[in-house]
Specification:
- A three-stranded parallel β-sheet has the order 1-2-3.
- The chain is an alpha/beta fold.
- α3 links the parallel β1 (36-39) and β2 (59-63).
- The chain is built from five helices and three strands, in the order ααβαβαβα.
- The chain has a domain at 35-108: NAD(P)-binding Rossmann-like Domain (Rossmann fold), CATH 3.40.50.
- α3 packs parallel to α4 (70-83).
Length: 116
């Protein structure tokens, strides 16, 4: 796990029994025992971090949006191809209760009392 906030990183690692904590993703990428990285960062950081991780030869999984602009998205795909790693973009809302409610309402033609 990489976390710039040292104390927070230690607390999370302790709670979830994460054996190693790094202060930067660069430190994490230097560890040969790491094969893949789940990148959970702000949207504007997806591309620079994912690109760095892939150049280090690690696979990357990140949430939508893949990038904040088309050029970054293309660079990410090209970097994955050039480095022979997987780049996967996940949709973390797929099983979100709110999304499930919306889907069931659409399927049955019901009107739900939604509060947004």
């Amino acid at each position: 796990m990489a976390e710039r906030r040292v104390q927070l990183g230690r607390r999370v690692a302790e709670r979830y029994r994460i054996p190693k904590v790094y202060q930067t993703h660069e430190e994490l990428c230097a560890d040969p025992s790491i094969d893949a990285v789940v990148e959970i960062t702000s949207d504007d950081m997806h591309a620079p971090i994912a690109i760095g991780v892939m150049y280090a030869g690690k696979h990357v999984y990140l949430e939508k949006p893949m990038a904040t602009n088309l050029q970054d998205a293309r660079t990410m795909v090209d970097t994955a191809d050039r480095n022979g790693v997987k780049l996967m973009i996940g949709y973390m809302k797929r099983y979100d209760p709110g999304i499930e409610l919306a889907k069931s309402s659409i399927r049955c033609g019901c009107r739900a009392n939604w509060v947004i």
